[in-house]
Amino acid sequence: MNPLVPLLVAGMLTFSTTPVLAVTQHACGKPSDVLNLANWKLTLPTGSDGHPTEIKQPQLASYSVDPWFTACDGVQFRAAVNGVTTSGSSYPRSELREMNGSKEASWSTDSGASTMEIDEAITHLPAGKGVVAGQIHDKSDDVTVFRLEGSKLYVTKGDDPHYKLATDDYQLGTRFKARFVAGSGQIMAYYNDKLVASIKVKSSGDYFKAGAYTQANCDNSSPCGAGNYGEVVVHGLTVSHNTGE
After folding, report:
1. What is the span of the domain harbouring residue 79?
2. For residue 21, is it within any domain?
3. Beta partners for 115?
4. Cα distance between residue 9 and residue 100, in whole Å
5. Of the residues 21, 148, 214, 215, which has the fewest C-beta atoms closer than 10 A?
Protein backbone atom coordinates (compact mmCIF):
# COMPACT_ATOMS: atom_id res chain seq x y z
CA MET A 1 0.00 0.00 0.00
CA ASN A 2 1.32 3.45 -0.90
CA PRO A 3 1.78 5.87 2.01
CA LEU A 4 -0.56 8.88 2.21
CA VAL A 5 1.26 12.15 1.58
CA PRO A 6 -0.40 15.30 3.05
CA LEU A 7 -0.84 18.18 0.59
CA LEU A 8 -2.18 21.70 1.17
CA VAL A 9 -4.55 22.55 -1.69
CA ALA A 10 -6.61 25.82 -1.64
CA GLY A 11 -6.37 26.01 2.12
CA MET A 12 -7.58 22.45 2.61
CA LEU A 13 -5.53 19.52 3.84
CA THR A 14 -5.86 16.62 1.45
CA PHE A 15 -3.91 13.43 0.79
CA SER A 16 -2.15 11.94 -2.20
CA THR A 17 -1.34 8.30 -2.82
CA THR A 18 1.90 9.21 -4.62
CA PRO A 19 4.57 6.79 -3.39
CA VAL A 20 7.36 8.26 -1.31
CA LEU A 21 10.87 7.17 -2.29
CA ALA A 22 12.39 5.62 0.80
CA VAL A 23 16.13 6.06 1.22
CA THR A 24 17.57 2.93 2.80
CA GLN A 25 20.69 3.41 4.85
CA HIS A 26 22.97 0.37 4.86
CA ALA A 27 25.21 0.06 7.86
CA CYS A 28 28.83 -0.57 7.04
CA GLY A 29 30.59 -3.44 8.72
CA LYS A 30 33.07 -6.23 8.09
CA PRO A 31 33.50 -7.79 4.63
CA SER A 32 32.57 -11.13 6.22
CA ASP A 33 29.13 -9.65 6.95
CA VAL A 34 28.61 -9.50 3.16
CA LEU A 35 30.57 -12.47 1.82
CA ASN A 36 31.24 -15.97 3.10
CA LEU A 37 35.03 -15.85 3.45
CA ALA A 38 35.47 -19.26 5.10
CA ASN A 39 37.46 -20.73 2.20
CA TRP A 40 39.45 -17.71 1.09
CA LYS A 41 42.62 -15.83 1.95
CA LEU A 42 43.29 -12.18 1.10
CA THR A 43 46.29 -10.56 -0.56
CA LEU A 44 46.63 -6.78 -0.11
CA PRO A 45 48.75 -4.14 -1.88
CA THR A 46 50.55 -3.37 1.38
CA GLY A 47 53.59 -4.84 3.11
CA SER A 48 57.12 -4.92 1.70
CA ASP A 49 58.48 -5.47 -1.81
CA GLY A 50 57.70 -9.00 -2.95
CA HIS A 51 55.95 -9.70 0.33
CA PRO A 52 52.44 -8.24 0.30
CA THR A 53 50.19 -8.52 3.32
CA GLU A 54 48.26 -11.81 3.50
CA ILE A 55 45.25 -12.30 5.75
CA LYS A 56 44.02 -15.83 6.40
CA GLN A 57 41.30 -17.37 8.50
CA PRO A 58 40.46 -17.00 11.31
CA GLN A 59 41.78 -13.39 11.21
CA LEU A 60 39.98 -12.74 7.90
CA ALA A 61 36.59 -13.28 9.55
CA SER A 62 36.88 -9.98 11.43
CA TYR A 63 39.28 -8.09 9.16
CA SER A 64 38.88 -4.87 7.19
CA VAL A 65 41.29 -2.11 6.19
CA ASP A 66 40.32 1.20 4.60
CA PRO A 67 40.37 1.69 1.64
CA TRP A 68 41.80 -1.61 0.40
CA PHE A 69 39.23 -4.03 1.84
CA THR A 70 36.04 -2.58 3.32
CA ALA A 71 32.31 -3.27 3.22
CA CYS A 72 28.97 -1.49 3.05
CA ASP A 73 26.47 -2.66 0.42
CA GLY A 74 29.28 -4.73 -1.07
CA VAL A 75 32.91 -5.49 -0.37
CA GLN A 76 35.30 -2.92 -1.79
CA PHE A 77 38.62 -4.19 -3.15
CA ARG A 78 41.13 -1.47 -4.12
CA ALA A 79 44.73 -1.65 -5.36
CA ALA A 80 46.71 1.50 -6.18
CA VAL A 81 49.42 1.54 -8.85
CA ASN A 82 52.12 2.15 -6.22
CA GLY A 83 51.02 -0.85 -4.17
CA VAL A 84 53.19 -3.76 -3.09
CA THR A 85 53.20 -6.69 -5.50
CA THR A 86 53.73 -10.43 -5.18
CA SER A 87 57.03 -11.96 -6.27
CA GLY A 88 55.39 -13.34 -9.42
CA SER A 89 53.76 -10.14 -10.68
CA SER A 90 54.60 -6.48 -11.28
CA TYR A 91 51.00 -5.43 -10.61
CA PRO A 92 49.32 -4.84 -7.24
CA ARG A 93 46.17 -6.54 -6.05
CA SER A 94 43.51 -6.59 -3.37
CA GLU A 95 42.23 -10.06 -4.09
CA LEU A 96 40.87 -13.24 -2.57
CA ARG A 97 42.51 -16.57 -3.27
CA GLU A 98 40.48 -19.77 -2.97
CA MET A 99 41.31 -22.03 -0.05
CA ASN A 100 40.23 -25.48 1.09
CA GLY A 101 40.08 -24.90 4.82
CA SER A 102 43.62 -24.07 5.94
CA LYS A 103 45.14 -25.42 2.71
CA GLU A 104 45.34 -23.71 -0.66
CA ALA A 105 42.68 -25.01 -3.04
CA SER A 106 43.95 -27.02 -5.99
CA TRP A 107 41.82 -28.72 -8.63
CA SER A 108 41.90 -29.71 -12.28
CA THR A 109 39.86 -28.65 -15.29
CA ASP A 110 39.71 -32.35 -16.24
CA SER A 111 37.84 -33.67 -13.20
CA GLY A 112 34.35 -32.87 -11.98
CA ALA A 113 32.92 -29.38 -12.34
CA SER A 114 34.14 -26.25 -10.57
CA THR A 115 32.07 -23.07 -10.60
CA MET A 116 32.57 -19.53 -9.36
CA GLU A 117 29.97 -16.78 -9.70
CA ILE A 118 30.66 -13.14 -8.77
CA ASP A 119 27.99 -10.46 -8.45
CA GLU A 120 30.13 -7.37 -8.83
CA ALA A 121 30.73 -3.89 -10.19
CA ILE A 122 34.00 -2.45 -11.44
CA THR A 123 34.03 1.04 -10.00
CA HIS A 124 37.41 2.55 -10.90
CA LEU A 125 40.23 2.02 -13.40
CA PRO A 126 43.86 3.11 -13.17
CA ALA A 127 44.71 5.89 -15.64
CA GLY A 128 44.85 4.44 -19.15
CA LYS A 129 44.93 0.84 -17.95
CA GLY A 130 42.65 -1.99 -16.88
CA VAL A 131 41.63 -4.16 -13.97
CA VAL A 132 40.99 -7.89 -13.57
CA ALA A 133 37.80 -8.69 -11.67
CA GLY A 134 37.86 -12.48 -11.33
CA GLN A 135 40.08 -15.26 -12.58
CA ILE A 136 41.05 -18.89 -12.75
CA HIS A 137 44.73 -19.45 -12.02
CA ASP A 138 46.70 -22.67 -12.30
CA LYS A 139 49.93 -23.69 -10.58
CA SER A 140 51.99 -21.32 -12.73
CA ASP A 141 49.87 -18.58 -14.36
CA ASP A 142 46.39 -17.21 -14.96
CA VAL A 143 44.28 -19.40 -17.25
CA THR A 144 41.40 -17.00 -17.91
CA VAL A 145 40.13 -13.75 -16.38
CA PHE A 146 37.45 -11.10 -16.72
CA ARG A 147 39.39 -7.94 -17.61
CA LEU A 148 38.06 -4.41 -18.17
CA GLU A 149 39.89 -1.94 -20.40
CA GLY A 150 38.04 1.34 -20.87
CA SER A 151 34.47 0.30 -21.66
CA LYS A 152 35.43 -3.11 -23.06
CA LEU A 153 35.12 -6.16 -20.81
CA TYR A 154 37.08 -9.14 -22.09
CA VAL A 155 37.47 -12.80 -21.23
CA THR A 156 41.13 -13.69 -21.67
CA LYS A 157 42.76 -16.97 -22.63
CA GLY A 158 46.32 -17.53 -21.46
CA ASP A 159 48.47 -14.79 -22.98
CA ASP A 160 45.63 -13.46 -25.17
CA PRO A 161 44.17 -10.49 -23.23
CA HIS A 162 41.37 -9.96 -25.79
CA TYR A 163 40.24 -13.52 -26.48
CA LYS A 164 36.49 -12.82 -26.31
CA LEU A 165 34.56 -9.59 -25.82
CA ALA A 166 31.83 -9.86 -23.18
CA THR A 167 30.60 -6.29 -23.74
CA ASP A 168 31.95 -3.17 -25.42
CA ASP A 169 29.90 -0.60 -23.51
CA TYR A 170 30.51 -1.32 -19.85
CA GLN A 171 29.88 1.68 -17.60
CA LEU A 172 31.83 1.93 -14.35
CA GLY A 173 29.68 1.07 -11.35
CA THR A 174 27.30 -1.22 -13.27
CA ARG A 175 26.62 -4.49 -11.46
CA PHE A 176 27.02 -7.68 -13.48
CA LYS A 177 27.40 -11.41 -12.97
CA ALA A 178 30.64 -13.11 -13.98
CA ARG A 179 30.66 -16.90 -13.90
CA PHE A 180 33.29 -19.52 -14.69
CA VAL A 181 32.40 -23.20 -15.05
CA ALA A 182 35.39 -25.53 -15.44
CA GLY A 183 35.30 -29.25 -16.17
CA SER A 184 35.73 -31.93 -18.85
CA GLY A 185 38.78 -30.16 -20.24
CA GLN A 186 37.13 -26.81 -20.85
CA ILE A 187 36.17 -23.56 -19.16
CA MET A 188 32.95 -21.75 -19.96
CA ALA A 189 32.68 -18.05 -19.11
CA TYR A 190 29.30 -16.34 -18.68
CA TYR A 191 28.47 -12.64 -18.55
CA ASN A 192 25.04 -11.96 -17.03
CA ASP A 193 24.14 -15.63 -17.63
CA LYS A 194 25.10 -15.45 -21.32
CA LEU A 195 27.87 -17.76 -22.52
CA VAL A 196 30.56 -15.50 -23.97
CA ALA A 197 33.60 -17.79 -24.15
CA SER A 198 34.43 -21.50 -24.23
CA ILE A 199 38.06 -22.43 -23.71
CA LYS A 200 39.50 -25.89 -24.22
CA VAL A 201 42.24 -26.30 -21.66
CA LYS A 202 43.77 -29.01 -19.52
CA SER A 203 45.35 -27.57 -16.41
CA SER A 204 46.00 -28.62 -12.84
CA GLY A 205 46.70 -26.84 -9.60
CA ASP A 206 43.79 -24.56 -10.41
CA TYR A 207 42.03 -22.15 -8.07
CA PHE A 208 39.64 -19.20 -8.22
CA LYS A 209 40.47 -15.58 -7.42
CA ALA A 210 38.13 -12.62 -6.93
CA GLY A 211 38.64 -8.93 -6.21
CA ALA A 212 40.72 -6.19 -7.88
CA TYR A 213 43.94 -7.07 -9.68
CA THR A 214 45.10 -3.72 -11.06
CA GLN A 215 46.83 -4.02 -14.44
CA ALA A 216 49.07 -1.03 -13.86
CA ASN A 217 52.04 0.17 -11.84
CA CYS A 218 54.15 3.29 -11.52
CA ASP A 219 56.05 2.40 -14.70
CA ASN A 220 53.04 2.39 -17.03
CA SER A 221 50.43 4.61 -15.37
CA SER A 222 50.60 8.11 -13.92
CA PRO A 223 50.37 9.60 -11.36
CA CYS A 224 52.25 7.22 -9.11
CA GLY A 225 50.15 7.44 -5.98
CA ALA A 226 47.21 6.16 -3.96
CA GLY A 227 44.75 8.22 -6.04
CA ASN A 228 45.49 6.14 -9.16
CA TYR A 229 43.95 2.73 -8.59
CA GLY A 230 41.72 -0.10 -9.71
CA GLU A 231 38.62 -0.91 -7.68
CA VAL A 232 35.95 -3.60 -7.67
CA VAL A 233 32.92 -3.94 -5.39
CA VAL A 234 31.72 -7.51 -4.84
CA HIS A 235 28.12 -8.02 -3.72
CA GLY A 236 28.03 -11.80 -3.91
CA LEU A 237 30.55 -14.61 -4.31
CA THR A 238 29.85 -18.33 -4.52
CA VAL A 239 32.05 -21.31 -5.34
CA SER A 240 31.05 -24.94 -5.79
CA HIS A 241 32.89 -28.13 -6.72
CA ASN A 242 31.28 -31.31 -8.01
CA THR A 243 33.79 -34.13 -8.04
CA GLY A 244 31.55 -36.29 -10.22
CA GLU A 245 31.93 -39.27 -7.92
Report:
1. 28-242
2. no
3. 181, 240
4. 66
5. 21
